[in-house]
User: Fold these one by one.
Assistant:
Number 1:
Amino acid sequence: MLFKEISFLVKKEIALEIRQKYAFGGLLLYVISTVFICYLSFKRVVDPPVYVALFWIILLFAAVNAVAKSFLSESRGLQLYIYSLANAEAVIVSKIIYNLLLMLFLSLITIFFYTLFLGNIIQDMPMFILSIILGSFGFSSVLSMVSAIASKANHNVTLMAILSFPILIPLLMTVVKFSKNAVDGLDWSVNYQYMVMLIGLNVIVIALAYILFPYLWRNE
Amino acid sequence: MCIVFMIYTVLMGLLIPLGSGVTSVSPDGAKVLDTLTVKVKCYNTHFEEAQNSAKAFLKNDTLKMIVCANSIKVLNDQELELKFNVPFINIKKDDFIFVDLVLNNDKDGNIMQDEAIRIDRNNSIDSSINYSNNSTQSTNCADGITHTKATYIHFPNRAILNESIRNLYFHVPMWFTMMLIISISLVYSIKYLRTFNLNDDIIAVEASKVGILFGVLGLITGSIWARFTWGAWWVNDVKVNGAAVTLLIYFAYLILRNSVDDAQKRARIAAVYSIIAFTMLVLFLIIFPRMNDSLHPGNGGNPGFNKYDLDSTMRMVFYPAVIGWCLLGIWILNIRIRLNKLMNQENN
């Protein structure tokens, strides 16, 4: 039952996204122009810490913009309609899954343009992609939850940044170390602890979102 | 009760003198078979008072060597002039050994300075001559010592820490209090989500405000301590950064509350965010410091305070200090909750 609801809600989100192409187009343009600005100001980045940090900062702001609209853009009427049809748990899980797909797509496009313009110094590409997948997962779960909170607090977009950045710091710290190891081409065994930590963080955040979201959803 | 503990902490914590310690030894190097005249500067010692029982010797535990001072001249309470005859020690070329300096008198007890003087090989000595008999001069002055411990109450004198060891009664209990009070905030946030009683929300928000207050105080005292022990007001340390981010999260919590007008709605959103914030606090202050190295005692291979610094005199003040600070926190919290409830009644 829950799975059916979730898959239905995810399909609904994707259908909405395809219908409103400008939102996704705007995000793409945002990412590409940021990468291009970085290219114009840096030309080539050869220092691994700077390379990785720049990449994640670009992705962080793209993610905040992308995920912020997941709850903030919905009108009260639409929320009420969904509320009457679906479980709160199904809503948050479907949002997380949908945002994960969005983030994955966005980050793969970002890495494509990033390596194209700023040079490819990544020595272990599969590991880097894995770090992106785990990082996107964390971004989508944290930001979906925070977006839900911010949408209940008068749809305030600045609040979204204030609430989410401190919470994202442990995730960012881990994922930056992880992907820097990938750029340096270190052995996989070095990164097991980061992988375990990222998965642990994701599980904690998703569990919190699953338990706490119904309390947010119920109000009005 | 709380006031009694706090007054006790402040008085004892600030008034009990520090034990004696050596601040400088000059010169701190010598060669084999030299006649060495050392000027020793000390802190919190009573050389003039205990002039008759003054003793001084150099020792090296691995060589099982003790060298007594030929003459001890007391310059003033803090300064001594010592004369030693450095014995023959077989030191290889380009090698050296360290000897510890031990001072003793009946008032201050033993005052140790580890690795105080470095002894080098003396190249002008003909190594073919056998001096080894000279070094076994065992007129052992260490035997006559009656007082190895100081005769007055004092805190341990540690290198680097020095007087700042007193900060232990302020910095550490503040974080204990912060953890306690933030946990109260968590408990009442969860309770609010179960009962939707606005009184629980008042307790939760006031607890997090008082928790933030103690967190900021803990950060300030820690910063002062860091300046005098680690050398900078802010150091790049997991615990320090974690504490700062945790405070940011709780400030965000307060801003979130202010942005919503409706009381029930505000309480519900704030309770949800408070639970997330506490999870992050556990991550930052408890889990992360254990995964990474920290400069704090007890982390990253540093010995904890319990190991040897926290002697019985310090415990005597430290435990009441913890209880006192926690009670003070709960007291402030209690007053703020009552004030808020009264204001609510007036508004209604």
Note: Chain B has seven helices and nine strands.
Number 2:
Amino acid sequence: MSEWLVEGIEADLDAFHLGPVDLALRSGQAVAVLGSSGAGKTTFLRTLAGFLPLQRGRLLRDGVDISDWLPEERSLGYVPQGLGLFPHRTVFGNVRYPMELRGRLDANARTDDLLARFRLTALQHRHPARLSGGEQQRVALARALAAEPELIVWDEPWQALDVEARRELGVVLSDLREEEGIPVVVVTHDPGLAFSLADSFIVLDQGRVRLSGGPLDLLDRPSNAFVARFVGYENVYDRAVLEGGRDHPFTAWLLAAAGSEGVAVGTPVAVPTIGVPSTWEGVVRSARPNPDGVRVEVAVDDLMVAVRLPRPWPARLPAVGERLRFNVDGDAVHPLGTGPRNAR
Amino acid sequence: MSADVSAARARRGRRWRTGPFWVALQVALSGSLLLLFLLPIFALFTYAPLSRIVAAAGNVQVREAIGVTLYASGIAVLASALLAIPLGYLLARKRFFGRAVVESIVGLPVVVPHLMVGLGLFLLVLPGSPLYSFTNAIGFPVSDTIWGVVLVMAVVSAPYTVLASQLSFEAVDGRVLESARSLGAGPGTTFLTVTLPVALRGIVAGLLLTWARAVSEIGGILILAYAIYPGGPYNGPVTSTISVYIYNLFQQGDLADAAAVSSLFLLIAFALFLAVRLAERTGWVPWRRGDLTP
């Protein structure tokens, strides 16, 4: 399988400027492209797929510069948002399409194989409009594979899927890169699947790369509020909010650790009121059990803090208005934007 | 308290929308329109005794007029398909200077009285004009020939195909087309295998409208091809389109025959439309595949 190298690519779409973006993809690797709406994620994928001309930079496949190649020449399985299934063709017709284009004599047999592999045989005579979201995703993937791509580029694969369909598709995509070694680039808003699938991440913000690296880079240096929330930080505070409440010692302590944009704090653990020295205290606003214990929302002055009460679940959930103590691990406090590297 | 009030309001709103008054209003308005469509037809059928309609069906002149009308309108629809679909595609997919002007020109034949269209065409092909010599030289004389009928029909009805195909092409999701490209289809193949089939349903609807408009044309034909002399694909005796034929009967004061021939043609037109709709229902036609509804 091929290796892909994205070297400082830049592209323009109307007034929007993308780049420069760099990326290296080896066989079987998966990259997740993250960013809020309008960050340039789709523009990046469409540029890779050849639908937007490069203003600068190069796109190399196995060392060959394919920057000027047409979309149909790139051997790249691009699955756009909404999947782009052909509404006038059946499931069979959709999956067979790339092989028809190549005049393959075994098109029918190979289509049958792909349909069986993606559990679509029973649905082969249906049109896309009469499939569920999960079924449509499987058709899109089967069709992309029918073109024997050297890279799968997928915009929001998990959009509008229920939990089970997401899990299933995650497994299929993982199998794909492990068994066939096809590298995958996905744009997603789903942290769970991004972390389960991707080896590395690119975070885009207003067309620029804000962060690129592995999962630990994201967790340890969330860089901005979007990434912090994306990777699962529940306590993310804007600098302006902290500056507004600096009278309180907890707020002042956070402000000291904050970067130019604010601070992200890993979920603190609640501690017993007696016997264990603790740092902070707040008033319980809500308490909801989850598989890890109980998630308690605590108000400290004006700041809401999500606190975890570890398992086993208590006989009685903390009541609203009760006081709760918690400890914040200094390693779990991360500045956002530029500023102090860490609160340690 | 306020939640109760808004809930009660919402309940009242639902009752209002689905209540008997609302249903009655809908029935009354829709019924009035349907009545407007049906009453003139009813008048035609009641004025003409059945025996006259049967006699009209057996009348050679009537059959020739109907035949030539269907023939000419068929050619006009084919010409529209050939010329109007590409223009619809151009307007849907390309941004170019003067696009609004082109769109307005396309709308012109629809908005101006068709007598004017006929007059304009008539002046263009006056004996001695370059176009007169040219059309005669290539074997397409238009004055008082079936080609003249086709010309008028095409000019006044092709805008419907342009508009319908423009809307249909615009409605094709660009991401579907990008998928096709990425799967290996060049621009031409993408157009033939994806764009055109997906847009086909709307285009066919436009062609049906075009055909209906062509068949019902009279204004331009009165001027350019009032009588149709043999020539080109038509080799029968001198005849006219069915609309002109009925107009003549009316002018002669023969109301019963005018109503009988009208009724006969109505039945034929209705049968043709019904056949197309039934074919669409059964899914035999390619442009209805992949519908949301079964």
Note: Chain A has two domains: 4-225, 233-336.
Number 3:
Amino acid sequence: MMALALDLLSWIFLLAGAAFLLIGAIGVLRFPDFYTRLHAVSVCDTMGAGLVLIGLMLQGGLSLVTVKLLLIFYFMMFTCPTAVHALAQAALQGKLKPVVDDRES
Amino acid sequence: MEHFIDIVLLGLLMITGFAIVRLRSLLAVTMLTSIYSLLSAALFVVLDAVDVALTEAAIGAGISTILMLATIAQTTDREKVPRHTPLLPLIVVITTGAALIYGTLDMPHYGDPDAPVHRHMAAAYLHDTPLEIGVPNVVTSVLASYRGYDTLGEVTVIFTAGIGVLALLGYHTRRQNIQPPGIKKIVVLRVIAKLFLPLILLFALYILFHGDYGPGGGFQAGVIFATGFILYALAFGLGNAQRLIPQRLLHGLAAAGVLIYAAVGIEGMLLGGKFLEYRVLADDPVTGQHLGIMLIELGVGITVAAVMLIIYFGFVSRQNSGDS
Amino acid sequence: MSNLLGHYNYWIVIVLMMTGFYIVIARPNLIKKVIGLFIFQTSVFILFISMAKIEGGSAPIIEEGISVYSNPLPHVLILTAIVVSLATTALGLALIVRIREAYGTTNEDEIHVQDEQD
């Protein structure tokens, strides 16, 4: 019974992670500007990969594999936002202007 | 199910390949090459080649992309339209492809356990490794012990590449700090780089010594070790990174790794065995094998890390001003 | 049909190899040629590793309870080949940097023109 509940929970996390990855990918294709596309990519990196890792941790149970996955999750939470931040700052210093809505409304 | 993942990954590889042919912006082409490497690393995992996947991800998607970006920073970024129509290359390519496909019709089916390639030495290696060497990772045991002479040649090739790049590009120690103009404003990057550098180096050492029990080994560890220092050089500037690792130390380390490897071989000869025979290095043959494998992986890791840094510093220190 | 099921892997990899080959001979930019060579080499690695796979086998790390392992010998050869491909790519890119400093361009056609003028 416990195993079934854990399995179901891990499947929910895996599917949610896959859904976020899909949303991020559609965002990269459809958004008009570099900065908005960067925002969509960061959703892929943090939410998508993070949820998939949590789902895999639940599948692994209590073992060395789960500890390794936890470490990967921890490091990804540090490095993904840093990479996106560095990209955005580099684009700003390269004088790439964001697309601003100029209509009077 | 596995075939489905196979086909999806191969399809993505084909799309990436065609995009690389068509695009004109070299920066986009470099990023697509990195994606190509990562996709083939994923394909290697599906094909049960975990050691090869780790090496391809570290080398292909990591160091090769950095070197290509460094080259593009010093040359142009756009590719000019070719002047003549590529009809003759297309004919040559299609003819070669058709000939190769005709050649594969004779090959055994994918995944066939009775293929001729599985009959000769593979079963012997899989059977003898637990008895003679006692190391669970068969790829490491074959690479380091049964075919150790090939690996010595491979280390020498890496060392020669380092010498070649040193001869072509030189190694200029910059007094002032070369860094991109606005990098001091990205405080987050500097903090994270400083925080993660010891963790990256620790991870490299883990992969080096854990290569006996899981995927890993000297080459992957050396590349990851160099990547840590390249991250530091990107965040803090080239002058700071070169002050961190002096030039003579790098050159010395590159040679020291190859010397360690060859010294293990000669020690085998001095103790009564043949060149690169590890059994005689200790009282118990299995312990001798362990010792030999550990020493040569260390030598390989040292040489690869030093040569990667020599190549990177050679590329980046050749710029005359601070733009990159 | 069994031919298709047994060999589709090899045929797709041959298409990838020909893509890399086409980039090397048809594009005049030197950096693109080096990238094409890199794609060609990586596709050859995929060909070798797919020859080593055994249906139902696992990675060649000896563990209790597994009886069929994939062939470790091509893995060792391809490990060496990946490292050697990195060495040649690094040397090729270093040569491109020097060529750019000597000729002022990385386009093969313009280099030929400059050579014929001398």
Note: Chain A has a mean pLDDT of 87.
Number 4:
Amino acid sequence: MMHTEQTLVAERRRKTILSVVLAIICVIYVLPVAAVVVNSFKLNTFVKTETFALPTEQSFAGFSNFITGMTFGNYPFLKSALYSVVITILSTGLILLFCSMAAWYIARVNSRACRAIYYLCVFSMVVPFQMVMFTLSKTADTLKLNTPWTIPIVYLGFGAGLAIFMFVGFVKSIPLEIEEAAAIDGCGPLRTFFSVVLPMLKPTLISVGILEIMWVWNDYLLPVLVLDLNEYRTIPIHIQYLKGSYGTVDLGATMALILLSIVPVIIFYLACQKHIIKGVAAGAVKG
Amino acid sequence: MAEVSLRHIRKVYPNTERGRRGGLFGRRRSEQGRASTQGRASTLKVTDEGVLAVPDFNLEIADREFVVLVGPSGCGKSTTLRMVAGLEEISGGELHIDGRLMNDVAPKDRDIAMVFQSYALYPHMTVRENLSFPLKLRKMPQEQIDTKVSEAAKTLGITEYLDRKPKALSGGQRQRVAIGRAIVREPKVLLMDEPLSNLDAKLRNQMRAEIIKLRQRIDSTFIYVTHDQTEAMTLGDRIVIMRDGEVQQVGTPQEVFDHPANIFVAGFIGVPQMNFFDAELVRTGAAYEVRVGGVVVAPSAEKQARLAAHDVPTQPITLGIRPEHVSLATGGARTLQGTVDVSEMMGSSVHLHLRSLGQDVIVIVQTMDVDGSHRGGYAIGETVEFTFGGDVIHLFATDATGGNLEF
Amino acid sequence: MSKKPAAGNSLRQSTRRWAWLFMGPVVAAFTIGFVWPFFQGIYLSFCTFRVTSDATFVGMGNYQSALADPSFQHSFWYTALTAVVSLVLINVLAFAVAYALTQSIKGSNLFRTVFFMPNLIGGIVLGYIWSMIFDGILSAYGTSILLETRYGFWGLIILMCWQQIGYMMIIYIAGLQAVPEDMLEAAKIDGASRWQTLFKVTIPNVMPSITICMFLSLTNGFKLFDQNLALTGGLPYIIQPDGSTINTTEMLALNIYNTFYNANTAARGTAQAKAVIFFILVAGLGLAQLAYTRKREVQQ
């Protein structure tokens, strides 16, 4: 108590040191991404030898890596980017719509069958993909779910578990009275769901949506096993296949493509950072 | 606009549904568990079919009447209301609204509106959207909706909040919006399920007065559920007192207060609660007298006549006297004695808790006499004498139902 | 109040008429995407097959060959080691960072944003970024991450830390913020030092978060695939006396994948048996977590 002033000074000094330490870690954290940026402008031969140096006059490649990258690896990069976008949007949309509907039905009707499906969903959350990957890819093949337009059905099926689990948790927290009021006001079950329940689910829709977007966008194994690879590729598949298609990889071009593929992710992250962190935390605590 | 008639209405919760195991709705079950531990353990009848929440409910409600269903939690009042609303299936009996059989009609087609305890406003809609929602669903033209909404808003004094979302409103304002949403449709029957229970005491009194004003202005029939006897007394044209699913008494507030049908009603209606004594009713020819703690009280002539008409014999009884009908006395043959346990100063009166004849007796003493002189304070442990007249006593049988012997 | 259970609620009945619409799509997709493949997978683990249509029942044979497979055994121990080492490092570092960030220091929002960012980058891309970096370092010494098991191991650990610390940090921050301020002040007034407060008050109060994060990082470690594939792909390999090879940095998921899709399609039954064993392992961890969270919810 006698040294209050000193303690406060010490406290302030401690916080400054902490800030500096964190700032240093921060810089280290950004370095890998910075390395990608730097190396995407370097000629291939310099990437391995001068990885951590800024481009010199000798090693600077300009935008040629990006141009090479577009046609690099037997498959146009833009096409795989497009398919990634299509698959992500369709899958997330399907999951949000149908899983919220099913979750509401499960929570409100709560019959024996509903509970069975619910527990099956919870169970599916702990099943690793390797368990079903072979049989799932064959089933998907048989049912012609091997195109970007149909693979969302596979995502809906394999991703239903977490989504339904999270939606049911939220629906249970909505007082039943609101839906009863809707019934008295003149809503049938359909309208009750779409005009009353669905708008109330908005925070969970955002959380689940973000989790699904992150999953589908980054997913490698499911599309590589399901899609017809001669026709369709996604960004992760494209990047993985760069290695296999050339004896020695053009590292400069690879880095250029990696940069192109993480820029949208980072923009998306900075734009809805708050929702993403909240959604991810919600998913973690639940799942 | 509409009579409501409930004939032999029954509600059974099948055993399989109720005793179901399953984690999904654990929350709901625990809620129930809490409700039943709150008060006296509920003694709902369990039959082979399941739990009888409401065994046989009969009531004819007149057009524009204001009926209050009142009783402790778990007495079936909300279930009954929800059956009228169509939110619970009716297990047996007939429900008519305006002469039409409604048992299997969907809630939206019954021409009713309901106000919920939790308000149940749509959180994603503004107040205006909340009010217009039921009208929109009925495909009413937009101009007409606007007129009706602004009328209802004016009636309830919520015009300035029309563009706010419910979460930006206080409890009282939300309650007004909930009522607004119910009246904007001009329903035949307006159902209210504990609408004031979530408000604080001051606001509750204020809203109670508003509901009284409101019913003068609109033509609906009201069915109102509450556990609060004050609300029941002040609002209802008629009160229906329920317990364990069964109707105990139906009557005007004055009737149930003056002539409670049994001990339960007597104890439930009136604050502070009625005092009860073990006593004996003695019949000599056509004349009756009540003996309690060595004191003899003669019931009023009117009561004597009624007892005689029912040919009530000499028997032990439970004697009931309301605290406001007990007065302190000094000396005299017809006084009982008690020692002061607690003395509660209420302002205009003092509630004295006495220990007398082995039980607690509450006496309300006016602190100021008509002539302006103050009555002194009462010390704890002090012995006082009290008395009561033969016209304010209530005589109940000592059996399980505790029926009023005059009935 | 006198609310009744949902049983007998007539809204339920009217909703039931729409079961086909509300449940139909999910049930159909769930059957295609999970239920059918799952049970077929269980069945096939008892069969020899090349394609799903011509399977012959062989009983427990696949499980025997799976458990006897030295590469599977190796990948199990390698996975367990990776999972445990990464669990410890990730959680200690994530907690430290979260603790530092909740000390109301300047720039904590920026730090949080940066630390979380790697989490959004997919495993394949992460693998390539780090393989470039490690090779950039190691090439100076004339070696590569693909040439030595220990490089591959620590490389993967660093990658996992970089990716997951931010994620766990978010959970720890939420946990730390939920510790009541007045409890910490009470400890201060009672004369507890900073370290005593941390170990005796703060940590016991964030135990739920710690448990969640431990489970999460453990299951993440066990299920790791993309990063493993992209960083080292299992290399380097050693040749066994019997001529078979063991990929020394190959984890369980990758081992299963390679058994399914390598040239020897006759081993698919074994691969499926491995997958079932893997499933039991991961599901066991997951269900333990679920049971734990449930128990905690009940206690609250």
Note: Residues 4-39 of chain A form the longest helix (36 residues).
